């Protein structure tokens, strides 16, 4: 499958589960997703542009957390799935500084150096090739700007003596199928987590793409990681 076909497939999958997405996020993570997003936003860096790009913004929960913590910022919320953004817009009608826009992470409709931080939560693994997304993120970041990624760790690492891995491979797709009536979407989620690079490999990707000051931190025993990288000044 070429990258364009992959992008269309991912967009279709998320369009189909948009109405269930928030509920399933909370249910499947036992509410930990709220804490993970809070920790992600704590790594955000503000600067002269007064703007942040929330990429793969989905239903805008990260955008809302950014606005809660930094109420003076302008937040550009971009996602490939129109249905996800439309679902999220209902939650931000009273927050005019959040701007939802449908966009491809490989071709951002933004000028060079226009944001101080790019956040991306549970979205970088859905963009192929990732190198094109990194290139665009570097382009739109101001010099010294920061990329903050929240993403699942690789499902190849044994967590909680394999209990998480069993949950990921066997339980998650069945729960997602029961609630969303879309068996492919949550099987896709499990498959992409299992295939995703481990934290050190992702850090190398970021350095190879041109970022510096790359670091990462595990949360919830390594179920998720926060990666932080900087555009060179």
Description:
The structure is a single chain. The chain has 233 residues and is α/β, with parallel strands linked by helices. Helices cover 45% and strands 21% of the residues. It is built from nine helices and seven strands; from the N terminus they run H-H-H-E-H-E-H-E-E-H-E-H-H-H-E-E. A seven-stranded mixed β-sheet has the order 3-2-1-4-5-7-6, sandwiched between helices. Helix 4 links the parallel strand 1 and strand 2. Helix 3 packs across helix 4 and helix 7 packs antiparallel against helix 8. The model has no long low-confidence stretch (mean pLDDT 90).
Which SSEs are present, and which pair or pack?
Blueprint: H1 3-17, H2 21-28, H3 32-42, E1 51-55, H4 61-69, E2 74-79, H5 82-89, E3 98-102, E4 115-121, H6 130-140, E5 141-152, H7 163-180, H8 183-195, H9 199-209, E6 212-219, E7 224-230
Helix pairs in contact: 3-4, 7-8
The N- and C-terminal alpha carbons lie at a distance of 37 Å
Number of helices: 9
What share of residues are in beta strands? 15-25%
List the strand order in the largest sheet. Answer: 3-2-1-4-5-7-6
Order of helices and strands: HHHEHEHEEHEHHHEE
Could you estimate the helical fraction of the residues in percent?
40-55%
Report low-confidence residues grouped into runs of 5 or more.
Answer: none
- Give the helix/strand class: alpha/beta
Mean pLDDT: 90
Largest sheet: 7 strands, mixed
Characterize the overall form.
globular
Number of beta-strand segments: 7
Radius of gyration: 17 Å
Keywords: Menaquinone biosynthesis, Methyltransferase, S-adenosyl-L-methionine, Transferase
Function: Methyltransferase required for the conversion of demethylmenaquinol (DMKH2) to menaquinol (MKH2).
Pathway: Quinol/quinone metabolism; menaquinone biosynthesis; menaquinol from 1,4-dihydroxy-2-naphthoate: step 2/2
GO molecular function, one term: demethylmenaquinone methyltransferase activity
